[in-house]
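Hi W.,

Here's what went into the run:
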Amino acid sequence: MMSSTERIHSGITGVGKYFPEREVSNHDLEKIVDTNDEWIRDRTGIASRRFADPGTGASDLALPASQQALEMAGVAPDEVDGIIMATITPDMVFPSGSCVLQQKLGAKRSWAYDLSAACSGWVYAAAQADSMIRAGMAEKILVVGVDVMTSILNMKDRNTCVLFGDGAGATLFERMPDGEEGLLDIEIGADGAGGEFLYMAAGGSLKPASAETIANDQHSVVQDGQNVFRAAVEGMSRVTLDVLKRIGKTGDDVDLFVPHQANARIIEYARRKAKLDPEKVMLTIDRFGNTTAATIPTSLCIAMEEDKLKRGSLVLISTFGAGFTWGGAALRWTID
Ligand code: UT7
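Here's what came out:
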């Protein structure tokens, strides 16, 4: 078997993030739906989130995040080989959000496509970028996780509207020089039987937009919170432990755990299962809520800003979301 230093690695060489300016606190939401700050904090860990103004597309958030990531990596837009945008809220059904971003960014040589895996989108996209780089198909791939969740939220439904926020995180994956580690292991999975617990009913081919779908509020997120919670607690813990096991490490070896930010209680459960110290857990849900595909790349970026990552740090990532889909990854941090 090839040792970890012999195989080709991809690694992250730049990160960037962008959140809309408008900050919406739990108290602000109390004025819109029957909820309260205490319930939201206790049940989710969320204190505040950012909402984009109407008329904002996913590419508008993805652009500054991508520019920041490229600048950090010292890579010009026309050096990018490919763009994978993980999102469930692209600017429009087609052309893809990635193509819109490619044009805005000036990434003239790049192919571009969107990937739909909800909260697992960034991990799924990272798996594809890593595989393509290792196969020699590309050397520099921009992996963006972005969602404008407010575009699909029903602001009358307190079960969902308090949970989500808008944001974009960008990561540049590059082929590492020979002998250097980067992404060590990645796993993705799905169970379509979970589809009935978290979905948006209309706007696809099955139920195109009509006066009826609009009247029935079928263009917004529906969630059976308890069923998703149970599956997420189990699924996120399982994938976190799987990845650790495959790289032959324990919670003690991990420098930073960067989980999907859907609920602080789900994260706490996975942390305990993986026997990780609380200070090794990256939490951004308090400030930004659940930004779906953006939670992990934005959290990586914030971790860098807060000096929680240095070159060589062992980073453990895991996620669980609609589909159901899930994913986990371990990587050596490759930015100074
Ligand atoms: O990222 C994608 C994956 N998504 C997730 O991982 C989310 C998983 N689910 C969850 O995080 C949690 O299930 C929620 C945060 C969504 C809900 O928390 P919960 O502890 O499961 O609450 P619940 O749904 O069992 O509701 C408990 C009570 C209910 O009232 P009754 O029936 O006990 O009287 C709800 O009606 O809380 C009520 N409730 C609220 N109260 C105040 C529900 N939403 C709210 C609210 N404010 N916003």
